[in-house]
Amino acid sequence: MRKHELASRLISFLRKRYRRELEHPWHDDPFKVLVSCVLSQRTREENTEAASRALFTVAATPHELARLPLRKLEKLIRPAGFPKQKARRLQAISKILLEQYGGRVPRNFDELTRLPGVGSKTANVVLCYGFGIPAIPVDTHVNRISRRLGLVSPNAKIEEVAPALSKIFPRRYWHVLNRGLVLFGREICRPLRPKCSLCPLSDLCPTGKQKLKPKKTK
Asked: How confident is the model at residue 23 (pLDDT cuts 50, 70, 90)?
């Protein structure tokens, strides 16, 4: 019962505090979402954005990306790091999309995860933010906060987090959960020094209870 109460309060809080951000259009071109997600691997958000902007001004479709000279592609995406590996991966994905899917990104989890370098997180990002299909992408914020709040076991494997959350949160709020927790994780429930005193969920959160527990006086 506690998890469902916490889930209800969390969604209510996220929808209220980040209403303006959550009301913005939340899904975009599936191919651009897929490419950006591949670029985001092992790098920071600002690096992903810089690389994506540079690439999409030159190649914004599978056909354009597949025809791009490899060295030019590597140069365009260099801000995201690992340019050689990511360039080859992006061209391999583009060619598969052209050869097997008519240049379209599949909207099926199993087919997405068969693409080179596409794991469950990337597949769920594409479903959620590329097609508007309810999914729970588990990024660093979702993973950390879910464990910190006790919504999932601290020992759960990363691939177990999304299925566990899908049993607690109504499907209609799955996209709110991911987008909201990213904002919440940057502002309040930070990786280091979380601002538990500002969190309305601290009375249900094991971490918050511990941090806000009155210190014993000698």
From this structure: confident
Where, residue-wise, is CATH 1.10.1670.10 in the chain? 2-24+137-206
The span from the CA of 81 to the CA of 68, in Å, is: 18
Architecture field, domain 2-24+137-206? Orthogonal Bundle (1.10)
Residue with tokens 């992903």: 48
Architecture per CATH, 30-131? Orthogonal Bundle (1.10)
Q: What is the DSSP letter of 106?
A: -
Q: What is the pLDDT of residue 217?
A: 57
Closest CA to 117 of 82, 146, 145, 89: 89
The whole-angstrom separation of Cα 85 and Cα 127 is 24
183-205 pLDDT, tens digit per residue, is 999 999 999 999 999 998 888 88
Q: Which of 29, 121, 195, 203 is catalytic?
A: 121
The active-site residue out of 32, 95, 139, 211 is: 139
Residues of the chain with CATH 1.10.340.30: 30-131
Which tokens in the block code for residue 141? 């914020």
Please state the φ and ψ torsions of residue 120, each to the nearest 5 degrees: -65, -40
* 121 among known catalytic residues: yes
- Catalytic (active site) residue 84: no
